[in-house]
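job 3f2a | input accepted
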Amino acid sequence: VQLAESGGGLVQAGDSLRLSCAASGRASSPYSMGWFRQAPGKERVFVAAIRWNDGFTWYTESVKGRFDISRDMAKNTVYLQMNSLLLEDTAVYSCAHSDSAAVVVASQVAYWGKGTPVTVSS
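job 3f2a | predicted structure (122 res):
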């Protein structure tokens, strides 16, 4: 499975940004896809995930109410709409994919994207 992310960039605090991640190389649908992020000098942490068959979602507490994860099943693409961005949202955001588990912890992720940087400035 190959994961191609896009949509990162430099924005100001309070702005919005949408990340996309397109999966290819597998005919079957994933069990789940999601996003992790790694801020400078910190560990990679879970952000949000979505179960492919029914759209059930998981979020880390710090992004609830601001971020929205969604999927386009026809395009095998997952999106992360990020609103009301904060300085602490600055990180490299990586797409995650699993055929068998919820990608809410890194150990359950089978495939990773290369990451797309998001920088939030004041």
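job 3f2a | The longest strand covers residues 17-24.
job 3f2a | closed
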